[in-house]
Write a structure and sequence with these properties.
Number of helices: 2
Distance between the termini: 24 Å
Structural class: alpha+beta
Helix content: 10-25%
Strand content: 15-25%
Length: 104
């Protein structure tokens, strides 16, 4: 399951971004056979709601086992991720470790 954020405008370059909500912005796709089965693949990316609908096929509920952040290979990126929300938990990355709190 891969999320591609929306493109930045020129005025957004080289500064902190506002909060990004991956459930309402950007596009999603699944890799491997899951992408082929759902139609949400690298070629035909979906909204988050479309992806949820495609995964709601009566089978086992999807589970997130791990999460990673990557920028890709084209240009160097120096940045940070903070306030990462997965389901009901928010992960705040601080110098002394990760703080986990329940989302409101």
């Amino acid at each position: 399951m891969v999320w591609n954020p929306p493109p930045l405008t020129t005025s957004q370059l080289n500064r902190w971004s506002p909060y990004l909500d991956a459930t309402t912005t950007g596009t999603w796709f699944l890799t491997g056979s899951a992408g082929t089965t759902t139609g949400c693949n690298l070629t035909t990316q979906c909204t988050f709601q479309d992806l949820l609908s495609a995964l709601n096929d009566g089978g086992a509920a999807p589970v997130i086992y791990t999460a990673g952040v990557s920028k890709g290979r084209d240009d160097m990126w120096i940045g940070a991720v903070d306030g990462l929300r997965i389901n009901r938990f928010v992960y705040d990355f601080e110098a002394d470790g990760v703080r986990i709190r329940r989302a409101l």
